[in-house]
Amino acid sequence: MEIQFVATRSFCYHFARYTVLPEIEKMAEVTCGDDFKITELAQQVIDTYLSAEQQQIRVKKEQSDKTDAIHSIIKFFVSFIVKEQKIFVNLGEGVFRNKTAEDISDLELEESALADGDEEVGEFEGWIYAFSFPVLVRINEAFPIKIGKTIGNVEERVSIQCKGSAAFDNPVILGKWQVKRVGPTELAIHNILKARGKWRENVPGIEWFDTTVSEIQSILEFVSS
After folding, report:
1. By mean pLDDT, which of 20-29, 75-84, 123-132, 136-145 is the weakest?
2. Cβ distance 24 to 38 under 8 Å?
3. Is the pLDDT of residue 72 over 70?
4. In whole angstroms, how far apart are CA 108 and each of 103, 115, 129, 150?
5. Is the pLDDT of residue 200 over 50?
6. What is the pLDDT of residue 83?
């Protein structure tokens, strides 16, 4: 796969998240269950895609005269994302191991099944939630709102979704509604908003709609009646 190299921190972040981490997850050192040092495996992937000259290019920090080498920035983002999203079990001092069944809680398994569209889990009682970011919020008019579902804690779910993303602001939870059949309820809300032409199709992420909290509330009351 060809990488379009650009000497920016944005490139380093996306390269770490979408190239380095997926490659690490497939490595034999990870899948066998042994302990591994995340920066060492990250460096192996970096060496595959970037030349020594590219890796040594230094990028200035924002609002600072200090600079960091490209390879260091990438490895920082890899470590940061792994820790924030708890992709592997953190053993300390940069050492990790792959998760086993014992490391995954029942709630994590149910949330994963829910996200994958498991019909049985979708019938569980849960929460429909709506969030956005302060810069996007508008009064008395439609604005981009993410509408999702969870069978766990809404605040934790939203936090997990936003960690490691390219967002530079904290999310604002606009509403949360407890429902009996969380999967079908969320699908109904999405479909109604799509039929009204409210779906923001060509944006990063999914489940974003140009709507209002009152419109979501109205739809929810309709589909739950």
Report:
1. 123-132
2. yes
3. yes
4. 10, 10, 18, 11
5. yes
6. 85
- Total of domains in the chain: 2
d(CA 148, CA 156): 13
Question: Which region, left, alpha or beta, applies to residue 92 given φ > 0 means left and ψ of -120 to 50 means alpha?
Answer: left
| Shared-domain flag, residues 99 and 116 | no
The backbone torsions φ and ψ at residue 123, rounded to the nearest 5 degrees and listed phi first, read: -85, -5
Q: 3-state secondary structure string, 70-111? A: HHHHHHHHHHHHHHHHCCCEEEECCEEECCCHHHCCHHHHHH
Q: Are 66 and 120 contained in the same domain?
A: no
Gap between the Cα atoms of 52 and 43, Å rounded: 11
Helix 213-224 crosses helix 182-195 at what angle (to 10 degrees)? Answer: 120
Whether 85 and 116 map to the same domain: the answer is no
**b/e for 54-64, b at 16 or more Cβ within 10 A?**
ebebebeeeee
